[in-house]
Amino acid sequence: MLRLLERSDVLTENFRPGALDKLGFGYRKLKERSPRLIYCSLKGFLTGPYEHRAALDEVTQMMGGLAYMTGLPDRPLRAGSSVIDILGGTFAALGIVAALRERDQTGRGKRITSSLFETTALLVAQHMAQYELTGEAPPPMSVKRPAWGVYDIFQTKDGQLFVGVVTDTQWEIFCREFGEPQLATDARLKTNGMRVKERTWLIPRLGELMRRYTKAQLAQKLEAIGLPFAPIAKPWDLLDDPHLNAGGGLIPTTVRGKTIHVPALPLEFDGARLPKRADPPEVGEHGADLLTELGCSSADIQRLREQRIVALPGT
């Protein structure tokens, strides 16, 4: 561990609070040894009354209000992805990059802590702000009145399509291109706010219109006139998505001997996606190589394996 630290810029850890201090690798001790080290802790909570609690993604979704806003009234439901784990790690990475840039100026490292609970609070900040500004508690998104007059899933001849008409200009385009001049001139529908109030009859009326088309026909028409739409996809449908499959959006990756496809990072640098650096290693796969780089002899490595400090591949 100490040899690794001598050549490292960043240490990340997600042990329970205080665990690394007991092992002799707490921030204060390592800072004395390596003042340029960036020490990043990923925890359940930042400093405060909860900081020593154990936490999981779903735990903080429940206590942070996200599960309430996702589910039905009186039936909270976690989001359909480990969004807090993912975003908590993303904020950790942002903090590390910022600390590295600061170190370029000061020469000193820094301790960073990213947490699940505070990440959840950030995700529901819009609802917190709405409550304080209006004095009204927003209902779960599953039953909440949309902020736009047309923002719905519609049935077509052969399936469903989500369609959004979110501005007054888009409403004019929609009515013109779909041959509905009477809707365009209806005084009750002049603005988005007015259309929201008329959704009870407007959405069924538009539903009749959408059922004249197949999914493909409707999608083609909406794309041509620049209006938002989306097919209703399952995660595994994305494996065949033509957009993701173009330009390196899905990366072949070998896991336990099987090749799967995972999304690339959602970034482009000078118009190019980032390539895969390596497949996920098996436990212990690169341990011997790394220890050799650190100056350990074959006998040292064998001793570490016998003491079960270093794993063998496949164990």
What's a quick, concise take on this entry?
The protein has 315 residues and is an alpha/beta fold.
Structural class: alpha/beta
What amount of the residues lies in strands? 5-15%
**CATH topology label of the largest domain:** Rossmann fold
Sheet with the most strands: spatial strand order: 1-2-3
| Assigned CATH architecture of the largest domain | 3-Layer(aba) Sandwich
**CATH homologous superfamily assignment of the largest domain:** Crotonobetainyl-coa:carnitine coa-transferase, domain 1
Give the end-to-end Cα distance, rounded to a whole number of Å: 21 Å
Can you offer a commentary on this structure?
The chain folds into three domains: 2-134, 3-Layer(aba) Sandwich (Rossmann fold); 150-232, formyl-coa transferase, domain 3; 236-273, no CATH class. The protein is an alpha/beta fold. Helix 6 crosses helix 7 (116-123). The radius of gyration is 27 Å and the shape is elongated. The protein has 16 helices and ten strands. Helices cover 43% and strands 15% of the residues.
